[in-house]
């Protein structure tokens, strides 16, 4: 009976010690007897897990935030893998050749050599799984990697072979997004990251101004609609909002662009156009954002006595 009580008391003391900040299961084990490296690692893992668990119990908001971030990263990783695999699977290899390759008069063997060279540059040569792993490594920052940015080829003078010698040009990068294949975005083979960074100032300028205008107008319209619920202004607002929300954003963007260029004669190039050229992209984004924001303001508005109404 005394032995049973002693055992229960020792278990109770161990549970109490586990909740202490300075308790280490690894140190307690080493004090009792010498253990193997595997057992030491196992106890270190249990000890670390217990400390992390106690920290998150004391700070539940940190634990919740950590889980949300972790699940978000896992979801993003799976989305990238699935999207890359689907696009790579449905894209035939001939798409990586120039559109006018047949006009060069090259033989089938010469075209195959050129295709392999271009696929290596685009990062799509070889089995699918190594391609995915290489892509994930390339888009992961802070990891230096050797990437192919071009190639040097020597074309024979007699035209019997397209390549007598070939050498891939590599460079050390910490972040590499590949090269562009769509000529509508940039010149074929241009660095995707450089293309993205060149477009960022224009995107930021258009987006920031559009958001400010959208919120300013949406607050005014939403408050006004809340004040006039059930009346003509509110009914017109609801009808127009429902119509604009039902139209896909891409349709509004393309429609505004075609109208500004084909009808009004504005320039299609943002950095060389007039004020009107810069106005219409902002207008399109305001039209897209304003109905949703104004509807939210109308629904939860409490400014019934606002002087603006």
UniProtKB/TrEMBL annotation:
Statement: the UniProt record of this protein carries the keyword Transmembrane helix: yes
Recorded topology in the membrane: Multi-pass membrane protein
SUPFAM superfamilies: MetI-like
Subcellular location: Cell membrane
Transmembrane segments: 69-87, 202-223, 235-259, 279-297
Keyword Cytoplasm: no
InterPro entries: MetI-like_sf
Keywords linked to the UniProt accession: Cell membrane, Membrane, Transmembrane, Transmembrane helix, Transport
GO cellular component: plasma membrane
Recorded coiled-coil stretches: none
PANTHER family, alphabetized: INNER MEMBRANE ABC TRANSPORTER
Protein name stated in the entry: Uncharacterized protein
Organism whose genome encodes this protein: Mycoplasma feriruminatoris
């Amino acid at each position: 009976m005394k032995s049973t009580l002693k055992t229960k008391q020792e278990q109770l003391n161990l549970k109490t010690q586990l909740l202490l900040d300075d308790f280490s299961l690894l140190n307690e084990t080493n004090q009792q007897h010498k253990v193997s490296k595997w057992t030491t690692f196992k106890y270190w893992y249990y000890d670390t897990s217990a400390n992390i668990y106690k920290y998150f119990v004391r700070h539940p908001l940190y634990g919740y935030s950590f889980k949300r971030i972790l699940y978000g990263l896992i979801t993003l990783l799976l989305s990238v893998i699935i999207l890359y695999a689907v696009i790579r699977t449905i894209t035939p290899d001939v798409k990586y050749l120039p559109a006018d390759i047949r006009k060069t008069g090259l033989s089938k063997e010469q075209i195959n050599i050129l295709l392999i060279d271009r696929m290596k540059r685009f990062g799509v040569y070889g089995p699918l799984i190594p391609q995915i792993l290489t892509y994930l490594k390339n888009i992961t920052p802070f990891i230096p990697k050797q990437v192919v940015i071009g190639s040097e080829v020597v074309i024979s003078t007699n035209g019997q072979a397209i390549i007598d010698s070939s050498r891939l040009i590599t460079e050390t990068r910490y972040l590499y997004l590949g090269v562009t294949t769509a000529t509508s975005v940039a010149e074929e083979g241009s660095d995707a990251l450089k293309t993205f960074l060149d477009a960022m100032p224009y995107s930021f300028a258009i987006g920031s101004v559009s958001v400010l205008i959208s919120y300013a107008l949406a607050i005014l319209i939403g408050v006004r609609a809340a004040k006039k619920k059930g009346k003509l202004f509110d009914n017109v607002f609801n009808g127009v909002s429902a119509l604009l929300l039902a139209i896909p954003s891409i349709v509004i963007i393309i429609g505004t662009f075609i109208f500004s260029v084909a009808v009004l004669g504005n320039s299609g190039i943002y950095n060389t156009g007039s004020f009107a050229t810069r106005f219409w992209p902002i207008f399109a984004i305001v039209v897209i954002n304003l109905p949703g924001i104004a509807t939210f303001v109308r629904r939860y508005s409490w400014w019934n006595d606002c002087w603006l109404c």
